[in-house]
Amino acid sequence: MNRVQKKVLVTGGTGFIGKRLVQRLVSEGYHVINLGREKIEGVENIIVDLKNVDFSFLDSLKIDYAVHLAAFSSPGRSKNRDDEVMELNYRVTKRLFTKLLEKQIKKAIFMSSVAVYKDSTMPINENSPLDPERSIYGISKYKAESEIELLKEKGLPVVTFRLSNCYGPGQQWKNEEFPTLIPQVITSALKTGKMEIFDKNPVRDYIYVDDVVDAIIASFDIDYSGTLNLGTGIGISVEEIARKIKGFVDAEISYLSVESEIPNEIVLDIEKTKRELGWFPRVSIDEGLRFTIDYYKKALENNPIKLVKSTFHNEEETKRKLCGFITKTNKLSMGDKCRQFEEEFAKYQGRKYSVLFNSGSSANLAIIQSLLNLKILKKDDKVGFSALTWSTNVAPLIQLGLKPIPIDVSLENLNVNSYNLNSALERDNLKALFLTNLLGFCGDIDKIKEICDERGITLIEDNCESLGSEFKEKKLGNFGIASTFSFFVGHHMSTIEGGAVCTDDEEVYRMLKMVRTHGWSRDLAPETAEKLRREYGIDDFFNKYSFYCPGYNLRPTEITGFIGLEQLNYIREIVAKRNQNFLKFQQTALENPYIAKTNFNHMSFISNFAYPLVFNNKQTFEEYKKDFEGSVEIRPVVSGSMVNQPFFKKYLEENGLNYSCPNAERIHSFGFYFPNNHELDEAEIKQLQNLMKRKEIHKDSGIYQENKINQKSVKKAIITGVTGQDGSYLAEFLLDKGYEVHGLVRRTSSFNRDRLKDIYSTSKKRHVNFTLHYGDMTDTSSLVKLIAEVKPDEIYNLAAQSHVGVSFDIPEYTASSDAIGVLKILEAVRKLGLSDTKFYQASTSELFGKAKEFPQTENTPFHPRSPYGVAKLYAHWIVKNYREAYNMFACNGILFNHESERRGENFVTRKITLGVAGIKLGKAEKIYLGNLDAKRDWGHARDYVKAMWMMLQRENPDDYVISTGESHSVREFVEESFKCVGITIRWEDSGLEEKGIDVDTGKILVEINPDYFRPAEVEYLVGNSTKARQELGWSPKIRFNQLVELMVESDLKYLSGKLD
Question: Which secondary-structure segment (H or E) carries 1005?
Fold first, then answer.
């Protein structure tokens, strides 16, 4: 038979392997029949949903070979979708292959997986034991194999391939939830210059996609039926893969070990496959990676990050459901689906009523017309609007005879604030305010509402860009008489086109429904419609075509309502993901001095569809814009300043008006926004962050290069306790940010500067922006002198007698230093009139002491259990008092236990790591400890000093818990420390007699000393830092086991004489 006549049925032809197979088959002269939901150009297509057919339509087709690739193709995607997985991977396979048996085809091919195998000796051969129970994916493939085996016994010629890890050009890489290793790592390396490997140890058998295609085609005309392994027979670790990729792409590799749910090594024995097929894998891992990297380089060049990545969330499924709805419904004009959506959307938004429109712009027009119809507004009334907005907020005002008044915005949050509104009211008597909540943000909207209520101004919110955002835990869009929303493609929720108005006012709700439909009463409640008919004396014949108010045709279709209901299922997921992205972008922006500083900490939740960047001048704007435009879709911030828009300029000129909105115009001239799409993957987020980062700016821009500091903008900071653990890390952190740092140190008999050796020494290597000053927290004159001389922008009070146990021995000094010393600084700042100085107080988790709730938050009642904790409690409250009484910018950081290589030797953690290092090196025999069961929330000091700084960058001061949220006992700290030097500890006896014993030698390495118990013990502390994570964008980077390992390694070097 001539090959061109041979017909091959392929399922999954649009997938990764399927596309490659179809291309090869067509090139080799086969007639391909594509069976699936998507069309493939150049082949015969049968468009069906495999899950909904019995395959009887194949009866009339001539088929020589069938290749069944369609499947839920990975264990990750299969989680929590048991029924769907079993349907496609098992039941569809059973129905299809039963039909193929009836048709007596030459060969059927089924693509199974190594997921059916049990852990066993490597390499795995076809007779190795099977155990797919670890995932529904493995179970589904196993059941399908079993069914195929029965059909084979009945005469079906079939080859089942158990495929290992296939890779190559065209493999999906944008699935953030279930990323595929090789494409994910390659694209991350290309886009961000970094490869983050979660587990470097797993060994897998990686096979190039073209070798898989070769094997499939080779199986067509052989006599063999049965199961064959499909891999290379060569195992390679994830770490090796990363290193090989690094050989082609200059990128950093970082490792984060995560436990895997699947075996750590899977390598196939392919000798049987080579023998039966006369096939062998031709592409080496190095060649395959090179081909794959070249593919993704080209793909990324032609694939910029778009503002709109898909029409809807979960687009494929939504389209499929929409097709089903359209074919079944008998009405597509506005009807039940629209009404159902209105009810559900009102519930989500938290308002009584919602009215659906055909667009957000129509919603804007409808609310203005409705307020005019209700006489709430009248012709020639002045209506204020945000100068930074969209044209269809302004056009209806002009169109309907109102007078639009632009109101400037704040550079800090890009929105109208109360002071902007008050400035406008000095000039114009406004009757309404059409307030845009721009890009997920708002100003001080509570104060704006107060002003509007006091002055009888009708407040309307344009919330088209801020769905899901909250101010003081109240959704934006719930402050005015009504709020408008847009469901255009790319917004938080898409119905393709669509919009809505929400309100709690019943009269406004009724009028909106009439304005939407020409002005007639058909959509009103029957009793309301009847009342109107009687009022105007209209008989039944004419009533349906009577127009009771000015209106338009702004109706949506049932398609809009249906899609809206579908998308509402995902809205919480969508806004949450956009919020997570925003927090990452915001932190990066705050670290770049060329980007104008924004502050949104007054908001309790932010969800936007784009992130705005505003630069300090035109040159910087142009350089960053050029960088972004190569790989990211960017646009002006919304539409820029409305005062600069041609149509509004013309309106102002024709009416002899002139308005200046300098902040909006600056944003217009020096700003753009980039996508904050909920579908951004981690590599794309990192790519965007890299583009945002500080870079070298040409000298003609008026800004110094990165390694030079503009002296006029240098911030000054004072750090008390600068020689301590936190002080030394904070000093380095601030110096890296270009600060001028002044440290307060006590005169002591010893020269205690060890922790500052990298930034301070008696040699010429001393950091140029770092100065030490003698002083003491108990000496008022030295504190006042230092603060008066430096006039700092920021003060970080870290000085304290910070050892809890010692505070019982010297309670009076602890109180003088830790409590009254704080008061001395606050008074100095107040009396010197330094109103712009920001103050940070190092508070402590010891405030909670005998805690009454777990985990502890900013609102947990305090119950300190030591003189140290009591002194810190006074300091905490005096800071709050001065903040409230004198409007000082003063923050408390309630820091839970944080350690480091620089921790003092009298602290239990350092005592442990020093002791362990000493035992390992033969310089110590035992460690003596107190309460082994005390539990603490331990983090690393480097992470925590960053949180201190972040608190002082906010617009308004507040107090924050800083913690990891994980609690570990002293006992666990001991065990983890010994583990770092290869010693396993077992515990014997209890109480004061308890001992820690080396499992291998039987030596006692840990004993209890009652002298180390506190008079009042704090048993258990663990913090909840949600507020800091949400408002500051802070999170700890160094985990508990990494902290312990760093400390032990440092003490090993220290005791070996290799570390100062």
Answer: strand 1004-1008
Examine residue 719 and state whether it is found in any structural domain, yes or no.
yes
Residue tagged active-site, from 342, 846, 901, 976: 846
pTM: predicted TM-score of the whole model, two decimal places: 0.52
Residues 273 and 410 placed together within one structural domain of the fold: no
Per annotation, catalytic residue among 93, 484, 557, 844:
844
Residue 180 half-sphere exposure toward CB, CA atoms < 13 A: 17
Task: State both tokens at 744.
Answer: 């307060």
Give catalytic status of residue 846 as yes or no: yes
Structural contact between residues 805 and 1014, judged by C-beta atoms closer than 8 angstroms:
yes
Q: What are phi and psi of 172, to 5 degrees?
A: -65, 135
Place of tokens 């845009």: 436
Do 570 and 659 fall into the same domain? Answer: yes
Per the structure, the complete domain to which residue 1036 belongs is given by 714-1054
Amino acid at 285: I
CA distance 637 to 596: 14
292 falls within a domain: no
**Catalytic member of 353, 509, 868, 960:** 868
Domain end marker among 637, 668, 699: 668
Average pLDDT over residues 349-372: 97
CA distance 97 to 147: 9
Q: Is 967 helix (H, G, I), strand (E, B) or coil?
A: coil
Distance CA 1044, CA 1050 (A): 10
Kindly provide the residue ranges of all beta strands, DSSP E only, lying in 2-118, ordered along the sequence.
7-11, 31-36, 44-47, 65-68, 107-113
- Please report whether residue 1045 resides in a domain: yes
* Cα dist from 782 to 183, 788, 831, 879, 1025, whole Å: 61, 10, 15, 20, 35
Close Cβ partners of 240 (under 8 Å, ≥ 6 residues apart): none
Tell me the two tokens of residue 657.
């008006």
Confidence of residue 616 (pLDDT cuts 50, 70, 90): confident
The number of residues in the chain equals 1060
Segment 297-345, tens digit of pLDDT: 877 776 778 888 888 888 888 888 999 999 999 999 999 999 999 999 9
3-state secondary structure of 328: helix
* Residue 506 falls in the annotated catalytic set: no
Residue 757 — pLDDT band, cuts 50, 70, 90?
low
Q: The CATH number of the domain where 443 resides is what? A: 3.40.640.10
Q: Which two structure tokens, joined as six digits, stand for 40?
A: 């493939």
Number of domains within the chain: 3
Residues 837 and 929 in one domain: yes
Statement to judge: residues 358 and 498 lie in one domain: yes
pLDDT in tens, 534-587: 999 998 888 888 999 999 999 999 999 999 999 999 999 999 999 999 999 998
8 Å CB contact between 20 and 210: yes
User: CA-CA-CA-CA torsion for 113, 115, 117, 119, nearest 10 degrees?
Assistant: 140
What whole-number distance in Å separates Cα of residue 486 and Cα of residue 496? 10
DSSP letter at 131 equals: -
Structure tokens belonging to residue 683:
């590599």
Question: Would you say residue 181 lies in a domain?
Answer: no
Phi, psi for residue 131 in degrees, rounded to 5: -160, 85
For residue 51, the domain's CATH number is 3.40.50.720
Active site residue 868: yes
CA distances from 839 to 722, 888, 892 (A): 15, 8, 9
Same domain? 734 vs 596: no
- Amino acid (one-letter) located at 1002: G
Q: 858, exposed or middle or buried, with CB in 10 Å at 0-12, 13-18, 19+?
A: middle
- Residues 987 and 996: their CA atoms lie apart, in Å, by 5
Instruction: Give the alpha-carbon dihedral of 330, 334, 338, 342, to 10 degrees.
Output: -160
d(CA 325, CA 559): 9
Instruction: Say whether both 730 and 795 belong to one domain.
Output: yes
Same domain for 17 and 140, yes or no, is: yes
Answer for the pair 604, 467: CB distance below 8 angstroms, yes or no.
no
Tell me: do 1039 and 948 sit in the same domain: yes
